Amino acid sequence: MGGAGFMTGMVLLLMALSSGVRSCPPSDRAALLAFRAALHEPHLGIFNSWTGADCCHNWYGVSCDQETHRVADITLRGESEEPIFERAHRTGYMTGYISPAICKLPRLSSIIIADWKGISGEIPRCITTLPFLRIVDFIGNRISGSIPADIGRLQRLTVLNFADNQISGTIPASLANLTSLMHLDLRNNLLSGPIPRNFGSLRMLSRALLSGNRLSGPIPGSVSLIYRLADLDLSRNQLSGLIPESLGKMAVLSTLNLDFNKLSGPIPVSLFSSGISDLNLSRNALQGNIPDAFGPRSYFTALDLSYNNLKGAIPKSVSSASYIGHLDLSHNHLCGKIPLGSPFDHLEASSFVYNDCLCGKPLKPC
Ligand SMILES: *[C@@H]1O[C@H](CO)[C@@H](O)[C@H](O)[C@H]1NC(C)=O
Ligand SMILES: *[C@@H]1O[C@H](CO)[C@@H](O)[C@H](O)[C@H]1NC(C)=O
Fold first, then answer.
1. Residue 203 CB partners (closer than 8 Å, separation 6+)
2. pTM of this structure
3. Residue 173 in contact with ligand 1 by CB distance below 6 A
4. In sequence order, what are the beta bridge partners of 137?
5. Ligand that comes closest to the CA of residue 154
6. Measured from the CB, is residue 304 less than 6 Å from ligand 2?
7. pLDDT per residue over 211-253, tens digit each?
């Protein structure tokens, strides 16, 4: 062997040694291969790079903790602008199921298997035994079955996203034990039963998106204890009872969507002078007058009260709102003269049609 050959040999040996030190343990590699074996990705070849001993290097979508050299993140998104997708000119499609083998990755911190459209099967029960999980995101698949009853064990969880699947059953009571949770998205599934009464224990939550399910029962008043909650979407369910007055007193709530439920009773006065700027109460059974509670603090990009049983006149105070971008009061039983004023100048007749006897601009004169 010549000098150059010797040097090359040494470099290769050093590289092998250093990557040996940093490579994932065989048990992590075996778990990943078992996870991969339960999935079928026919178009892109995202798993083609999952070869060789060192799953911490150049395995597509896998990354390891710098210190422990254990698998920490699995990130497989079916909608991506990465070269592998650009070359194929398509979004991802994958079938199969999420194997319980992922539970043999004890240092897993984030698992994102999103928007593959065809992944079915159930959420592996055993994920609740992974103490380091911070992010679980399975949005946009065809996952069925229920949410593990002991999901509340995941004390480090900050993001839980099961949106756009076929998950049924109830929201487990233990969910309220996820005291680190910041982002909860369960939209567009088949969840039924009530929102847990102690939902308000989720003190770190800033987005709670539960729309498009079959949830029933009341909106728990405890929701208003969630100090950081900015976005609450409970629309398109079967929620009933009153809208808690306390929702209008929340510090940072800016989007409140309760449309398409079975809510009844009056609209709480507090909602109109709160920090809420996007309010949709459409398609419920709300009764009584529109609260005469608008003022300079009332700033709405969208205010939709359509398809309810509201009666009486549109309150004069509405003219003192600082802004109303989109307004829909149609399909109620309102009557009387539409107030004048800057928030109303740009609105069209469609905002007011299908009421009992509203009149004045932009409808016909009184
Ligand atoms: C929530 O956590 C507490 C304390 O760890 C535990 O006692 C309780 O059973 C948990 N609640 C549920 C519904 O799992
Ligand atoms: C309010 O909700 C209704 C019913 O779900 C929907 O049709 C409407 O577009 C929503 N309004 C706004 C302003 O988003």
1. 179, 225, 226, 227, 228
2. 0.92
3. yes
4. 112, 161
5. 1
6. yes
7. 999 999 999 999 999 999 999 999 999 999 999 999 999 999 9
